[in-house]
Amino acid sequence: MKKILLAALVMLFGLMYSTANAIVHVEGRYWFTSLESSVKVTDLGAIGTEINLVDTLGVDDKKNFWEGRLDLNLLDHHLRYAYMPMSWKGTKNITQSINFAGQTYTANASVDSKLDVLYQRLGYEYDIINLLGNKLGVIIDLKLLSVDASLKTTGINKSYSKTAPVPTIGMAAQVGLPFLFSVGAEVTGIAYNGNHLIDGEASVNFEPIPFTTISGGYRMFDLKLEDGDNKVDFKLNGPFLMVKVGW
After folding, report:
1. If we measure between CA atoms, which residue out of 100, 151, 122 comes closest to residue 7?
2. Is 187 left (phi over 0), alpha (psi -120 to 50) or beta?
């Protein structure tokens, strides 16, 4: 799935960039996050324990991550791609027995945990309104989440991996302000059968020179997924800084 997404990205960017008047924007972000998350993984007929990553496993709830984005802009049409790798680690003597992916970890065991999440987005935005710094657009995204989780203690090393494509829809808006400032917001997501994925943000933007934007804002990511006896409840939120340049 990752290779398919990358191939589609290269092909679509090449197609749009070959068209006259296309503008490429490159964006770098730094996100200061707070984590709230619990997981339950069932395997081998053993019902998994719902595990709080911070409280149960000692994972650090405050971490910062970088993100890279590309936006190929042709008039009111945008082809967008985002890439953000994230990783958490924890070590703790657990206070109760837990079951993870069919394996039992007994109380008082020292457990080393690791969670890696690769979040990619490939999307299309059409601006219904795009005039004098004011914008209103519709977004269609394919989000690709690749998750690798592992728990390790003496004699036990169990891991779980999952890659899932998630189609989402949403909107983006911007309002121009005096003195080269603007405010913007964006939200994309999907909800079904009690499950949901929502990625939303708001920002204040400053454009000191043409095709260069400096922004600060706040972002939240909320994922809830239940599949039989498996469950993921994953929330990230916090402020971010961003620099975007175009040519």
Report:
1. 122
2. beta
SS3 category, 41:
coil
Q: How far is CA 28 from the centre of its chain?
A: 14
- Number of domains comprising the chain: 1
Hey, how many other C-beta atoms are within 10 angstroms of the C-beta on 33? 20
- How far apart are alpha carbons 244 and 68 in whole angstroms? 10
pTM of the predicted model as reported, rounded to 2 decimal places: 0.90
Question: Where in the sequence is the domain holding 139, given as residue range(s)?
Answer: 2-246
pLDDT at 3: 57
User: What is the C-alpha separation between 164 and 226, in angstroms, rounded?
Assistant: 13
The CATH code of the domain that includes 113 is 2.40.128.90
Helix (H, G, I), strand (E, B) or coil at 27: strand
Tell me the two tokens of residue 52. 């709080």
Amino acid at 155: G
Structure tokens at 82: 């985002």
Q: pLDDT averaged over consecutive 10-residue blocks of the chain (247 residues)?
A: 55 54 91 95 86 95 96 92 97 95 94 96 96 95 95 94 94 97 98 94 96 97 90 95 95
pLDDT at position 17, please?
Answer: 52
Q: What is the DSSP string of 122-172?
A: EEEEEEEEEETTEEEEEEEEEEEEEEEEEEEETTEEEEEEEEEEEEEEEEE
CA-to-CA distance for 224 and 144, rounded, in angstroms? 15
